[in-house]
Amino acid sequence: MATPGVADAAVTFDDEERPARRLTGPVDHGVAAVAFAVALLVLWQVFRPLSQGSQFYLIVFLAGVLPLVFLAYRSGLRLPDRLTSRLPARLAPRVPDPDGPSPSRRDLPTVADWLLAGLALVVCLYPVVPLTFGNAGGGYDAFLDRQGLLAPVDVVMGALLLVLLVEACRRTTGWILPVVCLVFLGYGYYGGLLPQTWAVAHAGLDFGQIVDAFYNSASGFYGTPLDVAATYIVLFTIYGAVLDLSGAGRFFVDLSVAAFRRSRSAAGRTAVASGFLLGTVSGSGTATAVSVGAVTWPILRRAGYPAEHAGGMLAAAGVGAILSPPTLGAAAFIVAEYLEVSYLTVLGWAVIPTVLYYLGILLAVEIDARRFKVRPVEVAAGSAWRLLARFGYHFSSLVVIVVLLAVGVSATRAVVYATGLAVVLSFLDRRSWLTPRRLFAALAAGVRGVLPVVAVCAAAGIITATTTKTGLGAQFASLLVRGAQALADNPTVVLALTVVFAAIALSLLGLAVPVTASFIIGWVIIGPALLALGVPAPAAAMFVFYYSVLSEVTPPTALAAVGAAAITGGRTVPTMWQALKYALPAFLAPIAFVLTGPGEYLLGRGAPLEVLWAGLVGCLGVAALAVATGGWLLGVGPARRFERVLAALAGLLLLYLHPVSIAVGVALIAIAVLTALARRRRTAKADPAGPAGTTSEESADQGGTDPAGPADRDSTAGGGEPAAEGKVTGSRGQESGSRGQESGSRGQEFGSSSGEEAK
Hints:
Layout lengths: L24 H23 L6 H19 L8 H4 L26 H15 L6 E2 L2 E2 L2 H6 L6 H22 L2 H15 L16 H9 L8 H22 L2 H12 L6 H17 L2 H19 L3 H13 L10 H10 L3 H29 L12 H8 L4 H11 L4 H15 L10 H14 L1 H20 L1 H14 L5 H22 L2 H11 L1 H6 L4 H14 L8 H10 L3 H24 L12 H23 L1 E2 L3 E2 L2 H15 L3 H28 L23 H8 L20 E2 L2 E2 L11 H4 L1
Antiparallel strand pairs: 1-2, 3-4, 5-6
């Protein structure tokens, strides 16, 4: 990045993958060449679809990418020492450090990896190879003709593909999702042995029927999830790689730094704005958090943010990338396919929730800046207007996507045209010219970046096919609704309880599996329960989508927080809790989608006036929740426990979006504000100097000034330098430590801040 004094990140993550191998030499070139060929196939399919149909294309696509997973990702398995000591060195598995090998160390596939890659190629291409094997084989049409009555060779090939997909999923995401897939597989096979009085029992499936459902049906491996990954997601991943190599990522962060360089809360605002802008092209929560953190963490540290608070802010801002148009996360494309609507429609549904999400984070940033007396930091950056004039063209491809979608162009063609525009515009900046070599690298990187998503989407076919074959979705939905009805008879209360149960289930599910898999499972299991209670399909789908995304900031497996902690050096678990605090208001907004009829207005589904008032009430509700979690009333001062409780109740009532609840919520906010103002006046009369943290409201800081509390005046009077000169000043309860020219300060939540960090 161009920001002076900022080091690049040494660690990179993606929200749905474990760190991949750092391939070198001929293997790296070979993998890149295959990935480039797959990219060309994807682009060809957009304009000249294969005549054999969509499933034929998916078979060929999977045959191109699945072998790459075994070459690009480590197995992570380690044999007992007594066995590996007897193997030749070239056959012994390499088990690098968890953080990956050093750049100088070779990290190449083992013999087992090459064998698995070759087997994956054979098994994937088997349905389309025009060779006869007894009563099996014979090409694609013959394979489809055997649907429901597979030959023994078909069953063997399908079983091998099942094992390979589970292993590919394990390599890219860890153990949890493969275990979930195997549980569904076991349920499909052994569910017929359950007592038939149980709601989840079914007639039973033999192994051939299960493989047929996975291997030769539209709901299995080649179902909607893989179709979305092979058409939409891979194209947007390529677009993101091209846009990044054209300098857009650097421009977005530099613009954020230049725009907020003078205010006290500039460091936090920069991190949040960078996360939003970079997220519009990333669609990856953890990758965005790490990329933004590499640039903004030094600024946050100089402002006085401890590592855990800064990491939580970065994680929350990064996760917003999966919610930010025009490149939402992978699950958003699946929403469009499941509901059979255009991707532009899903983008429209996401606008107001995205505003509410980032509004909550920005309010939390402003509250922390005042509550903890964050210091203003002067960053050497150019004029924001000059940056816009020189590099503002990077926004044009984003605008082109939306415009083309609006005029009826398909999402696949729109993103291809936007990618071409980004390539052409890259030649406006000599540092970022997309020469043929760099364009080759961008296309290959785009395909390699989608490998984990492909593994997840293909493996998710185990879940969707099992659910379809056994009717598990309807059975589980019935259990969920009956559980709520056992606690209440009122339809409104039943819906509220069902929504709460669904939110808890989705949050727990998201702890174990990636966002895409979490949405797929949540939609086929929990979606029917919401639909059965009369919730509109768009509201139910977006409810499941948002809770799947928010699992990225939910302890104890908040991947975005883990990535941010790796950049800041903070403790991982406290960073997770801070991320949850910043994103907490967003956990309640999706409930508003499904709880009442006006909740749909937050998705832009309604008359303009209805959407407007619902959006304004939603913003007020999020602001109230930010006061409750942050403990500060902007424009007033600190909020005590009484005001925070009132603000929390007000936020809940406002998000219910009913006229009576809105009126009560506004009244509670007014009471909280009046109570805080009255206490402030009493405090001012008792102590004209004003206690530290309450004078001047600390909000008029646009010019870079830092209103001094008593601690600041004491330290300055005692010969210390003011905080604006870069020294740390403040108070610690009633202690004052003087060490030369420096006074130490620690807020109750703020951790520690050393003199070296301040300098």
